[in-house]
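Illustration: Substrate-binding domain-containing protein.
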Amino acid sequence: MNVYLFFRRFLCVIFFLFTVPFYTKSHAQDNQGYWLLEDYLEMHPEQVKISDRFVSRVRSTALAFSKHQQDSTKVLIVYPGLQVSDYWRRSVASFEGRMRELNIDYELSSHFTKAGSDIELQGKLLGQSRGNPPDFLIFTLDATRHKGMIDRIISTDETQVILQNITSPIKAFEKKQPLLYVGFDHGIGARILAERYKSEYPAGANYAILYGTQGYVSSLRGDVFYHEMSQHLNSKLLGSYYVDFDREKAYRATLELLREHPDLDFIYACSTDIAIGAIDALKETGRLRQVKVNGWGGGSEELSAIEKGLMDFTVMRMNDDNGVAMAEAIKSVLEGKEAHVPVVFSGDFRTVDQETTSERLLLWRSDAFRYSD
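Result:
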């Protein structure tokens, strides 16, 4: 091995051990604080018809808002958009594209923060909004501390809340849920990827999980995947780390995994940034062809990595449906038809791999990114 490469890897491992906390996952599905989507719909069967009609609106041509607006509708967006994944940027683009098509007069203030780590900044932004409340707040919910922030806003009638990238209603909000939960169900995506890995390794595999930040997204994307794989014959989890949806931390964790487990077959990555960090480490160590890595979401960076043969496969979200759904929900409120908005909108996935034809991918891209490309 090249001496420079050896020392770089050695220093990265030491730096990782002493500066980046990581944890072994308990693997118990931590869903006590929320309902899985299928369970919620079983408890509220009336939501199925409302949801079906709403999905039709999202997938159809926009019907312009015809009522007169005395004032612009004020919208505040706070997203963890400072990451490689373009999901959040595309969400804003598709939201604005649909709002314009709907002919809604609006003022948008949007703020991007770091994924999983800017809790204080997010709290400050939400606190400032309470002094000058917007008509609609679009936020995400992952860390436990987010619940208190959102609960204080939901409890007032000044601002309607849309929770992005979450499709499992929070039990603590049952008396008064947000206007809409919107996104692509993490549990469904995790099961799709688990089935793909099972087909890739029918006799079982040795694998690792790279979680994001401790919270809702990691629990559903990671623990649901583990639960599915634990029922697969001879599959064994060799290690799992929280890497805060951070590319560099995922890179260091992967180096550690490769050092400790030379028999590793694949790494299950819980996000785009995590997958790219793992690929960085696999490229550096010459293990890219021996250890598979999935993507999560199917944004531009992932599709490019698959095209170059760096990533094996991903679940691709029909991305722009999330922004369209948010705009349609706002239109319903402005029309006095809030009852037409379902509690949850969950968009569709497609599986993309290195065998997906360019013609099919072009068709999926034109659908998924119809506003944001």
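Reading the tokens back as a structure: The two ends are 43 Å apart (CA to CA).
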